[in-house]
Amino acid sequence: MFLTSIGVGSLFLVALEYITGAVWSTPFRRVSEFLAATLLILPIISIPLLFNFHDLFHWTHTEMVEVDSILQNKSSYLNTTFFTIRSILYIVIWILFFMIITKNSRKQDESGDQLLTKRNITLSAIFMPLFAFTITFSSIDWMMSLEPHWFSTIFGVYYFSGTVLAALAAATMIIVILNEKGYFVKGLSEDHYYSLGALMFAFTIFWAYIAFSQFLLIYYANLPEETFWYLARWEGTWLYYSVGLIFVKFLVPYFGLLARPSKMNPKRLLYMSVWILFAHIYDLYWIIIPTVSKEGVSFNWYEVGYPLLAFGLIITIFNLKAKNSNLVAIRDPKLKRGIDFRL
Question: Which of 47, 74, 151, 210 has the lowest tally of Cβ within 10 angstroms?
Answer without folding.
Answer: 47
